[in-house]
Amino acid sequence: MVNLILFGPPGSGKGTQSAKIIDKYGLIHLSTGDLLRSEIANKTPLGMEATKFMDQGLLVPDEVVIGMISSKLDANPDARGFIFDGFPRTTAQAEALDKLLALKKTAISVVLSLEVPEDELIKRLLNRGKTSGRSDDSSEDVVKARIVEYHNKTAPVADHYAKFGKFRKVKGDGSEAEVFDLLCKELNELVAEKV
Ligand SMILES: Nc1ncnc2c1ncn2[C@@H]1O[C@H](COP(=O)(O)OP(=O)(O)O)[C@@H](O)[C@H]1O
Ligand SMILES: [Mg+2]
After folding, report:
1. Is 124 a residue of the active site?
2. Which residues are involved in binding AMP (predicted)?
3. Ligand 1 within 6 A of CB of 65
4. For 151-164, what is the mean pLDDT?
5. Which residue's alpha carbon is at the smallest distance from atom 15 of ligand 1?
6. ipTM, 2 dp
7. For a FRET experiment, which of 15, 66, 69, 133 has its CA 20 to 30 Å from that of 28?
8. Residue 172 CA to ligand 2 centre (angstroms)
């Protein structure tokens, strides 16, 4: 199995690149942001709780997202591997993920981090807000709050995986195709293309 964490700040291109990677390598995409938005769209109690945090650009509590990921891992016992997008976002989430994978006799193979300068991130997010309908992309204050959360709570996740020699930086400010190419160079060493 190959288990990839696509890491990087909001707006770094994790969702866009994940879609390309699942096509090429046949991995299962687990995006906590997408899972939470679907809970909100279905007006579930979990969604109603999560939306309070998301609308302010704050992280949803760890136990909520860890529970969602745990059930998705259980629901896909025959997966070739997973791409985690937007998860783990705290060191506690990373430790929980490592334990969940160990129970399944597997582990994170690599963390690929999309490196994009901050002014470019803000530009991309506000631009996406014009069409995505995402409430957390439309106000500059909320976008900035998300970047602050990233620096305070998510950036330390890099150190967690760097300790195990699993953290790699990838230049994320080229075109979609250029970034995909760089990601594939890393992935080709780890996983065969799907047939
Ligand atoms: N792993 C997580 N832990 C806590 N909150 C999360 C997590 N994943 C998503 N969220 C919530 O959902 C919001 C949107 O996440 P996401 O769609 O991943 O944003 P982006 O793709 O722009 O980085 C976050 O700002 C946060 O409120
Ligand atoms: Mg995303």
Report:
1. no
2. 32, 37, 58-60, 86-89, 93, 134, 146
3. yes
4. 97
5. 33
6. 0.90
7. 133
8. 14
Ligand 1 atom 17, closest CA: 33
**Cα separation of 1 and 89, whole Å?**
22
User: Are the CB atoms for 40 and 47 separated by under 8 Å?
Assistant: yes
Residue 193 is assigned to a structural domain of this protein: no
The reported pTM is 0.95
Q: Which ligand is nearest to the CA of 65?
A: 1
Range of the domain at 81: 2-187
Total domains present in the chain: 1
pLDDT tens track for 62-94 = 999 999 999 999 999 999 999 999 999 999 999
Kindly state whether residue 115 falls inside one of the protein's structural domains.
yes
- What order do you get walking across the sheet with 2-7 strand by strand? 28-31, 81-85, 2-7, 110-115, 167-171
Task: Determine the average pLDDT of the residues in 12-37.
Answer: 97
Tell me the C-alpha distance between 39 and 139, whole Å: 22
Q: Does 53 sit in the ligand 1 pocket, CB within 6 Å?
A: yes
